[in-house]
Amino acid sequence: MASGCSSKVFTVLSSAGTACLLIWLARSGSIPAHAAQWNQESSIDLKSIPISDWLNAGEHADIAWDLRLSDPYLRIDQRLEVSYVVRVNAKDLNRIGKTHELFFVSRISSPDGEWLDQPNISHYVIEQELPKGVQTQFVMRVCVQPGDYFLWLVLYDRQTGKHNVARRRMRVPEFRGDPLPNLYRRMPLVEFPQVDESDQNGPGFLKSQLYLPVHNKHALDVELISTLSPPEQWTGRARLLRRHNDNTVGAIIALSQLELAAGTLSITGLDLVRRQVLFEESSVRAVNWQGLMEALKRAQSPELNTEALQGSKNNAAFFREFLGQRINADGSSRGPRILIVVTSSQLFQRGSDLAPLQIEGDCRCRVYHLRFRLNMADVFDEIEKILKPLHPRTFNLLTSRDLRKAIAEIVEDLEKL
User: Fold this and answer.
1) DSSP letters along 304-354, please?
2) What is the mean pLDDT of the chain?
């Protein structure tokens, strides 16, 4: 399962959490794709190994390894995450055997030893001896609330019977001046992300819900509209496409958890390149994660039919016409129509029709434009021209903290309606 790798990098991903195996070659050469595999089918019964005895015995290393934790950071979906990395040299694996079935068992405890979660297991298979000079790196992640914790990590090789045990302290500080201080009110202290097969490099899905009540006085129809297709000016630039995906998914997940006192929340995902609506969900209580990831995957596909290619100058017009239909649609008699538009900075093909949206009379709508930018120099955006007649309140977002502030301001605004 090699994905997005050069001839010198091989990637394997875990089913439980967001672990990946990266293999770097210290010198020229390549590694066969079957040398290491993520095995989704097999798992392990922890009762079959003396894991409690291993944990009680303290730190131990049959296999030389290096374990390091990152500083906590805020994800786009507004969860706090800590990643931890295990590095093992190929020579140390080869020394104890040619084949390996590796299990990483992660668990989090409080400082006084209380377990705060169920074990999280990642499973890998290495089917042949690794080339000399190779280092394996396993990256795993966990989401936590602010506080003090211990990470316990067990590495078990079922082929050789060897095992390692490590314990590391984790400290996750509170936000200073947090605009959403109650956001984690409903969440568990600890949660491991679940990776979706269609986006194994993504942030992963979390079952818990953010606490985002909106105490609006009148019923509101809120529609979250996002461009799932990557900006046309970024075509072929993998790193930027990855960032667009993470921003898009994270923002949708966070905003979909707005809880209106009265009214409805719906989500629409657009593919501007194919001029299609790929994802629609009305009366959202919890976003359909699987459906969203499938829609995102279709929007990211490089395969385009003749109609999409020949009509590429109509992409901007499709966006404008879609918004016009939403603005003019009947069905918002109870109160204002709220549109939250989530995009990256977008440039359309030269010669595209960039005429602003035409509206007649009072649309009884309020529009928020959440625009993700790469950096301060990323100032060119043609979606802005189309939205201009709606007088949107625009938030330029560079970081996950910017999104947090934007959500807080939108909530405050809606509560006045």
Assistant:
1) --HHHHHTGGGHHHHHHHHHHHHHH-S--TTS-EEEEEEEE---PPTT---
2) 85
